[in-house]
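User: Predict structure, ligand adenosine-5'-tetraphosphate.
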Amino acid sequence: MSQPSNRVFSGVQPTGNLHLGNYLGAISKFVALQESHECIYCVVDLHAVTVWQDPEKLRSNIREVTAAFLAAGIDPDKHIVFNQSQVAEHAELAWIFNCVARMGWLSRMTQFKEKAGKDRENASVGLFSYPTLMAADILLYRATHVPVGDDQKQHLELTRDIAAKFNNDFSALITKYGHGESYFPMTKPLIEGPATRVMSLRDGSKKMSKSDPSDLSRINLADDADTIAKKIRKAKTDPEPLPDTVDALKSRPEADNLVGIYAALSNSSKADVLAHYGNEPFSVFKPALADLAVEKLAPINAEMRRLISEEEHVDAVLRQGAERARSIATETMKEVKEIIGFLT
Ligand code: AQP
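Assistant: Predicted complex:
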């Protein structure tokens, strides 16, 4: 199989509470890339179970993420939308990458340190090896680009390290079997725009996160208009009016976050937002932001609700997507097995 030149892969975990950070950092980018790239978008349930998930809730969260993809505008006919556990090759390639990646590389991953916390001995082995599964997700399709939020940058670097070591360890065989000098591409992360790291609405130093115990810290894609407006009204800010330069936002994390959200939702830049709202108090800016957020998110919210009630349709989209993903994945695994010396 020849190396594609512009293939995008990315995924979202079905762990509940999909929020504005997931939307601006990832899902909205997924939608935009459909115009220029061949896209593969995955509901990554194998990643989700690295921490315990209630099985019934997991099933409904898988459908909810799929509904969010479709409601946001991803076209499952033109591109591939599927569920990770329905394509067994993800786990198969992850095992091979577990044998390529080094303990030292994984031990440096900050997400593992943050998620395992002090009780590291009690974290699952899966949580530790999460980044090798992520490398497998991407490289199974030999994806060239991965749109992600800023928090995933380190995992993308590890993906490139794994690809480079595999290409180097098996270089003679890769050439022998006609794959040129390297089999896996050096995948590029796409981390761009004003909202690559959306912060908590309650604490500008913390990432907006699904697992934050405070629901006021995030805007959920499932929130209705009143809830969105209330959360923005209650968002933590400082007492000063907005500055008129982007530079002056650096020392004001909460203001920076809200300006970044406005910029991303309006498809503009922080400078554009400040050109309009610079020197205005939050009592003016927050209602404008709330209106904009409701205008952009309400249609997605309504379509998500409609799709969630159409379970059979969502399941059929995932089944059809898995078939198409599998046809690429089996081809890659066949070649990988040949390269590393397994019988095929
Ligand atoms: N706050 C964020 N700002 C920008 N992008 C974000 N992403 C997540 N949070 C933000 C991006 O969303 C995509 C899917 O993420 P995920 O499914 O891996 O979920 P996550 O990163 O585990 O989400 P949370 O909210 O951060 O969960 P917890 O609370 O478990 O830590 C990714 O591209 C991610 O970068």
